């Protein structure tokens, strides 16, 4: 059954705007869990713009569902992960000037460094994931460096959906879906888990959730935005319902 990992970074964004103690990301994680989330995702950035080290420590201790730590493939972040031992560590590209992650990790160009990071994470008993674009060379490189999970970057799909029809059957959207589908098939063929995420929302999530072999979606900004109006539990419930509806009928968007 398809699973939902909820990214709570932007709970911390609101808190850091005032450098205070609320809203608490741990409280958000509990509310997400009660709404049906299967996991919690946080990105501990080098500049600590939202999530802080103490947040990750408390989440590790106090949450009862999977913790996915997004991080750059740096010695500092790998050491933090090995100390805290989240269920999964996802290596992502990171730029100080970017508002959010702007593309997939280029494993092909950084194979030795990423292989070393994954080896250290694996030795600590942490499942390794990589956030990559829907490109076959990157999928093959992910298998070579020992990744257990590939999360496909759905940003280009979401961009096409928003700007070119807002229709799951528009040619631009179908083209991006096909890239993701092919990448997902290659991921599974190479013995890895196929996850996806980035810029998914309540309007575009179902065609992605209906893709064959997909295991988990990571969604944050849309859920936090909806939670402002309806509460965290309800926002998560709505997203999970949409995902499960489409996953239960994978041919829905092929008609």
Give an account of the 3D structure:
With 255 residues, the chain is α/β, with parallel strands linked by helices. Helix content is 49%, strand content 16%. The protein has one domain: TIM Barrel, CATH 3.20.20.70. An eight-stranded parallel β-barrel has the order 1-2-3-4-5-6-7-8, surrounded by eight helices. Helix 6 (136-145) packs parallel to helix 8 (171-189) and helix 7 runs antiparallel to helix 8. The longest helix has 19 residues, at 171-189. The chain is globular and about 45 Å long. The model has no long low-confidence stretch (mean pLDDT 95).
Task: Name the CATH class.
Answer: Alpha Beta
* Total tally of structural domains: 1
- Number of DSSP strands? 8
- In the CATH classification, which architecture applies? Alpha-Beta Barrel
Mean pLDDT: 95
Largest sheet: 8 strands, parallel, barrel
Taken in chain order, the helices and strands follow as EHHEHEHEHEHEHHEHEHH
């Amino acid at each position: 059954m398809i699973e939902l990992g909820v990214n709570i970074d932007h709970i911390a964004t609101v808190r850091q705007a005032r450098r205070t103690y609320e809203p608490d990301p741990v409280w958000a994680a509990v509310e997400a869990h009660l709404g049906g989330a299967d996991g919690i995702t946080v990105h501990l950035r080098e500049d600590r713009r939202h999530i802080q080290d103490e947040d990750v420590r408390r989440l590790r201790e106090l949450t009862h569902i999977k913790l996915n730590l997004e991080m750059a493939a740096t010695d500092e972040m790998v050491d933090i992960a090995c100390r805290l031992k989240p269920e999964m560590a996802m290596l992502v590209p990171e730029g100080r000037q970017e508002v959010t992650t702007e593309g997939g990790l280029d494993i092909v160009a950084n194979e030795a460094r990423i292989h070393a990071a994954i080896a250290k994470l694996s030795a600590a008993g942490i499942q390794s994931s990589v956030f990559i674009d829907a490109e076959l060379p990157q999928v093959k490189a992910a298998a070579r460096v020992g990744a257990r999970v590939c999360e496909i970057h759905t940003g280009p799909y979401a961009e096409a959906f928003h700007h070119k029809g807002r229709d799951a059957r528009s040619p631009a959207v179908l083209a991006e879906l096909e890239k993701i589908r092919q990448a997902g098939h290659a991921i599974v063929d190479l013995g890895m888990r196929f996850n996806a995420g980035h810029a998914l929302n309540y309007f575009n999530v179902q065609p992605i959730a209906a893709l064959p072999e997909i295991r988990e979606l990571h969604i944050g900004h849309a859920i936090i935005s909806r939670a402002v109006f309806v509460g965290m539990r309800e926002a998560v419930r709505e997203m999970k319902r949409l995902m499960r509806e489409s996953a239960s009928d994978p041919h829905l968007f092929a008609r």
